Amino acid sequence: MIRRNQMRFYTVCIWCFAIWIYGVTVINAQQSSEGAPTILKIGTMDLPPYGWKDSQNEIHGIIYELKQEIGIRSGFSFTNKILSHNRMYDMLKHGDVDLISSQAHQAALNAGDKLSIENSDNS
């Protein structure tokens, strides 16, 4: 009975140590990559009026601003980059961006967008 309790105790100690080591390793990896880890990576299409950079390299656009608000309200650290259509989809496929939106045009359909357009006309 005592031996069984000792084995349980040692097993719990080993698991606690392993979890602690894993946590320290993850925290160190995140801190070494950039000061604070970026949890949410957002991509906005480079297509005025949805998102674009002006001549002073300032970012504008209604979708860009909407995604900024999503990032702020999420409470996570985030980035929101203006990207070309093809690059945005490529980054999404490789996991380099988490959230995108695209507009209804042929390039989006060709890339695999599933979109539907609702018709409010009841005829």
Q: What does this entry look like structurally?
A:
The protein is of the alpha/beta class and 123 residues long. It is 48% helix and 15% strand. A three-stranded parallel sheet has the order 4-1-5. A two-stranded antiparallel ribbon has the order 2-3. The termini are far apart. Mean pLDDT is 76; it is low at 117-123.
**How many individual β-strands?**
5
Percent in helix: 40-55%
Q: Shape, please?
A: elongated
Low-confidence stretches: 117-123
Main sheet makeup: 3 strands, parallel
* Total DSSP helices: 4
Cα Rg = 23 Å
Order of helices and strands: HEEEHEHEH
Structural class: alpha/beta
Mean pLDDT: 76
Strand order of the largest sheet: 4-1-5
List the helices and strands and how they pair.
Blueprint: H1 2-33, E1 40-45, E2 52-53, E3 59-60, H2 62-74, E4 78-83, H3 85-93, E5 99-101, H4 106-110
Parallel strand pairs: 1-4, 1-5
Antiparallel strand pairs: 2-3
Brief descriptors of the model:
single chain, 123 residues, alpha/beta, three-stranded parallel beta sheet, 4 helices, 15% strand, disordered C terminus
Give a quick summary of the entry:
The chain is α/β, with parallel strands linked by helices. It is built from four helices and five strands, in the order αβββαβαβα.
